[in-house]
Every structure is written in C-alpha cells, then in structure tokens.
Amino acid sequence: METIMGTVMPFPYGFVPKGWEPCNGQLLPISSNSAMFALIGTLYGGDGRTNFALPQLNGTNGQPGRVAAGQGQGPGLSQRVMGEMLGEDEVTLTASEMPVHTHGFALYTAGAAASAAPTAGATLMAPASNGYLPPPAAQPTDLSPSTVMPAGQNAPHGNDQPTLDLVYCICTQGIFPSFG
C-alpha cells in the first residue's frame, strides 16, 4: 500500500524513510516538488515563487519543534487555522501572572521552641520523643518581610509539556490525493 502524498507521521527510528522528508521547516524548491507545492503551498512558509516550506515539527539547528494540533474551533477555544503557529518556546513569569500568595513564616521567641530547627521537609519534633512539640505559650513573632525575599533571575524557563521525542516526516513521493 502506497502512502498518500502530504501525510505526516511520527517515526520511532533515527532515519527518514525513502519518499519522505523530515518535518524540519526546511525550504524545498517548487521546480522539483511541484506536486507537494500544489498540496501545501506556502501554508508553512516560503516565498511561493521559487520555494515553499515543510511543517516544523522536529527541533533542528537551534529551532524548537512544534506540537501538532487540530484545526478548527473547540468549545471555549479560539479558531485555529491550518499552518498557524501558536505558543511560546520560553516564558518569563511576571508577578501579575502568579496567583496571590504570601511567603510568611513565624519564628518563636527565644526559649519557646526546640533547640534544633527542622530540616527541609521535616516536621518539628520534640527531641528524644515521637510527638510534636506543643505550641509555645508565647505568641509567634512575625519576621520582617525582607526575611523572605523573592528568588529567581527574571530569566525565561523552558515551557515544554511532557513529551516523547519521535521524528516527524511528511510523505513527498506517494499517491496524489483526489479532491472530493
């Protein structure tokens, strides 16, 4: 069975099958790929006079890959057009994008707490016992807001969803699809 030209498929091996091209966003000359150009035109890029581009689904040459998504409009979603690229490769969160929260913690006054501070992820326990420390008689003392300062570098972070890397290819030599 021969594949229909323009079919995009993921492959689980490290080579591109005969009659297929990797979906790396590369430009192909129209002169030697007129049937493919007739199918996808400049949907994924190119000048439409001498070349056209294949979809960009694999990351190459420092360029990120893309995740395939269906076209149209789902419930509560905006319209998606074939060939449209959306999303961001990296995101720098701003304070306005984070939910309201605080970074407060209380410190008991001298003599009210155990002699050893808890380690990260541990619960403060009474020394040499299996129980929690009783709350101190004195009220906790709030620390200065400068005690817990923001961390980070205002640098973007990767925005990848969990993925399984496969090689996406497009069939360039196959049966020309019939319109109907």
User: Can you count the helices?
Assistant: 1
Q: Which architecture of the domain at 1-59 and 166-175 per CATH? A: Alpha-Beta Complex
Q: Tell how many strands the DSSP assignment holds.
A: 9
Strand content: 5-15%
The largest sheet is: 3 strands, antiparallel
Low-confidence sequence ranges: 106-116, 118-126
Evaluate the radius of gyration.
29 Å
Please state the average pLDDT score: 77
Sketch the topology as an H/E string, one letter per element.
Answer: EEEHEEEEEE
Shape: elongated
Strands side by side in the biggest sheet: 1-9-2
Structural category = mainly beta
Name given to the CATH homologous superfamily of the domain at 1-59 and 166-175:
Phage tail collar domain
- Spatial separation of the terminal alpha carbons: 21 Å
Q: Helicity level, as a percent range?
A: under 10%
Q: What is the CATH C-level name of the domain at 1-59 and 166-175?
A: Alpha Beta
At the third CATH level, what is the topology name of the domain at 1-59 and 166-175?
heat- and protease-stable fragment of the bacteriophage t4 short fibre, domain 3
Q: What key phrases describe this protein's structure?
A:
180 residues; mainly beta; heat- and protease-stable fragment of the bacteriophage t4 short fibre, domain 3; two-stranded antiparallel sheet; 9 strands; 4% helix; elongated
